[in-house]
UniProtKB/TrEMBL annotation, chain A:
InterPro entries per the UniProt record, alphabetical: Ribosomal_uS2, Ribosomal_uS2_bac/mit/plastid, Ribosomal_uS2_CS, Ribosomal_uS2_flav_dom_sf
Name of the protein in its database record: Small ribosomal subunit protein uS2m
The protein's role, per its UniProt record: Required for mitoribosome formation and stability, and mitochondrial translation.
Classification of source organism: Eukaryota, Metazoa, Chordata, Craniata, Vertebrata
Family from the record: Belongs to the universal ribosomal protein uS2 family.
From TrEMBL, chain B:
Subcellular location as annotated: Mitochondrion
Protein name: Small ribosomal subunit protein uS9m
Keywords: Mitochondrion, Ribonucleoprotein, Ribosomal protein, Transit peptide
Gene Ontology MF terms in the entry: RNA binding; structural constituent of ribosome
UniProt cross-references to Pfam families, sorted A to Z: Ribosomal_S9
Domain of life: Eukaryota
GO CC aspect terms: mitochondrial inner membrane; mitochondrial small ribosomal subunit
Family membership noted in the UniProt record: Belongs to the universal ribosomal protein uS9 family.
Length: 267, 385
């Protein structure tokens, strides 16, 4: 599923360049040597661009995100604490380790795995210049999420979600607007403890989502759920820090690769 | 035939953008025949939906061209009027246009105008994203980016002040009697002014939320750190009493100070001379006020301004009045007396008189009779059948 989503993202981002390459290679009669040289230079350029785009996909942890956190960090940030047994959502039962004194405990081994996958996906999207939207409807952490988004150069939405923001975008904004390529939910519930409208809208518009799901949330429509606590300030600060570091790493890596390509093509 | 079919398929698929894949598809011609449905279309579908298009949009090049034309036209106008094109201001333009194109139209907005295109064409927001489609502002996807970014900055400032307070507490220098921002004589920006400032539409609840957050900032002891930021959202209120026109005190040959003032009420016009002579005589149209106004209420109206200021026996009133009835004449005289009194009284008293309503001209006039009715309000007798 991840590979399928990624290929869709690649096609969206890669389409125009490939088309131009195909049109340049097919049925072109070269009138002079200069034109021939130009076309080979263009071909080399596109090959280098393709390599930049595809090489990170060949390795499992290209951005070395497993160094960013350990299970002990998650434990100390109280990520394993869920809600009470009465608030438990049926679909979260596979992710729960158990319950102690009526409080649900989230399985940190599964959380670590899911978080690794989610951060990896975010890094790849940021590497390819995708738009990431951070969403949270919790008033305590709204400012924190907005600051995180500002610091990594991405976008945030911690306010009242108007109806057609994703599904009716050309009318809500202007025609020709580009929608986010990834939505990260720091809390999947809104202020009345119902599922955030953005999850359903993103699924309708084929936008992949990453979401921190607590023990009272529904993880079904989220592409990369991360079972974890979304109520404690320590946990939220940790998530914000992790996502910020991931996005910044991916963007720095991309800038590095572009520089190398620039150096190698000029040489 | 099969080859032409293949080329047809390839051209169709290239048009729809999936040309990255190598095409080794060999389909028979029959597969190309898609089901065709007869759709009846009426002319109403081809007409442009004018309501849905929204307000007319102008491109930046169009506006730039208009600005150039305006500048050139301004110079031509200055040459026509025989004035220096370099120092031709907007007031000169208005004067020249009123001279060259005299218009008898009642509505000022219907008359010919020549103004800078910025004032004529409504302001439009520019494109909000760069060449790659990434929006410039980090809160673009909320829909109201300037409003929410203002809230974000406000909250940032509140947090900064709280941190400063904590620092002062740690150093042991925390006090509540710090320099406070002076808010008297100013008001918050109205909702319309706020919308203009943010170039965005906000709802009433949004506006109230913003004011609440501002008040919260102002409730903190160290709010003077953000004084200039807060004052950007306050408008100065003009003190009303400064607008009063106070008549000049004149002196007659005996050295007695006097002042002259006029007053009107309904269709009665009055003129008063107030003399600082020490007696309390009141003469209207040559007669004593007891004879001219037999009704007590009218005499009370005359003396009320003096009674209010506390100078009942000090001034001599000499007045002339014409028109309307006795009550309106008394009201006109009262207004004239109050205006004449302004020159003998301090500023504090002037403000007190203004708040008492002594200096406001009563705007009530006889309401016009409407057709289909017997009077202004009285309808004809209603008959059931």
């Amino acid at each position: 599923m991840a590979a399928g989503v990624l290929t869709r993202v690649t096609q969206v981002l890669r389409g125009p360049r490939l088309v131009s390459a195909v049109f340049s290679c097919h049925g072109q009669t070269f009138s002079s040597a200069a034109a021939a040289v130009k076309s080979t230079a263009a071909a080399r350029d596109t090959a280098a661009t393709e390599k930049i785009q595809n090489f990170p996909l060949t390795q499992p942890d290209y951005f070395r995100l497993s160094e960013l956190f350990t299970m002990k960090d998650l434990f100390e940030a109280r990520v394993h604490l869920g809600h009470k047994k009465g608030c438990r959502h049926r679909l979260m039962e596979p992710y729960l380790f158990g319950s102690r004194l009526d409080v649900d405990i989230i399985d940190l081994e599964q959380t670590a795995e899911h978080l690794q996958r989610a951060l990896n996906f975010t890094a790849h999207v940021a590497y390819r210049g995708g738009i990431i939207l951070f969403v949270s409807r919790r008033r305590q952490f709204g400012h924190l999420v907005e600051t995180t988004a500002k610091e990594c150069g991405e976008y945030a939405h911690t306010r009242y979600w108007k109806g057609g923001l994703l599904t009716n975008a050309p009318i809500q904004y202007s025609p020709g607007v580009r929608l986010p390529d990834l939505i990260v939910f720091f809390s999947t519930l809104n202020n009345v403890f119902q599922q955030h409208v953005g999850i359903r809208d993103a699924a309708k518009m084929n936008i992949p989502t990453v979401g921190i799901v607590d023990s009272n949330c529904n993880p079904s429509l989220i592409t990369y759920p991360v079972p974890g606590n979304d109520d404690t300030p320590v946990a939220m600060e940790m998530y914000c820090r992790l996502f910020k570091m991931t996005v910044n790493r991916a963007k720095d890596k991309r800038r590095q690769m572009e520089l190398l390509k620039g150096i190698s093509s000029s040489v | 035939m099969a080859a032409s079919g293949c080329r047809g398929v390839r051209s169709i698929l290239w048009k729809y953008g999936s040309c990255g894949k190598s095409l080794c598809v060999s389909r028979s011609k029959t597969a190309l025949q898609l089901p065709v449905r007869q759709i009846c279309v009426s002319s109403s579908l081809w007409k442009k939906n004018l309501a849905a298009a929204g307000p007319e949009k102008f491109t930046q090049e169009f506006i730039n061209k208009q600005v150039e034309e305006f500048e050139v036209g301004k110079r031509h106008l200055a040459n026509m009027m025989g004035e220096d094109p370099e120092t031709f201001t907007q007031e000169d333009i208005d004067r020249s246009i009123a001279y060259l194109f005299p218009s008898g139209l009642f509505d000022k907005r219907a008359r010919p105008i020549m103004k800078h295109p910025e004032q004529i064409f409504p302001k439009q927001t520019a494109v909000q994203w760069d060449a790659e489609g990434r929006p410039f502002h980090f809160l673009f996807y909320t829909g109201k980016q300037s409003y929410y970014s203002l809230l974000h900055d406000l909250y940032e400032k509140i947090l900064a002040i709280e941190r400063h307070q904590a620092e002062m507490r740690n150093k042991g220098l925390y006090t509540t009697d710090t320099k406070q921002i002076v808010l008297t004589g100013s008001r918050w920006l109205l909702k319309e002014e706020m919308e203009e400032h943010l170039v965005e539409n906000i709802s009433d609840q949004d506006y109230m939320r913003l004011i609440q957050l501002m008040e919260r900032l102002l409730s903190m002891p160290y709010c003077s750190l953000e004084e200039e930021f807060v004052l950007k959202f306050r408008r100065h209120l003009e003190v009303q009493s400064r607008k009063q026109e106070i008549p000049v005190i004149q002196y007659d040959p005996q050295g007695v100070a006097f002042s002259v003032a006029d007053g009107r009420r309904k269709s009665a016009k009055a003129s008063i001379t107030l003399r600082d002579s020490g007696s309390g005589n009141v003469t209207i149209n040559g007669k004593n006020y007891l004879h001219y106004f037999p009704v007590l209420q009218d005499r009370e109206q005359l003396l009320f301004p003096l009674h209010f200021v506390g100078t009942l026996g000090r001034f001599d009133i000499e007045g002339s009045v014409e028109g309307s009835g006795h009550s309106a004449q008394a009201g006109a005289l009262r207004l004239a007396i109050s205006r004449a009194l302004l020159s003998f009284v301090s500023e504090v008293e002037v403000e007190k008189m203004r708040q008492a309503g002594l200096l406001t001209a009563d705007p009530r006039i006889k309401e016009r009779k409407k057709p289909g009715q017997e009077g202004a309000r009285r309808k004809f007798t209603w008959k059931k059948r």
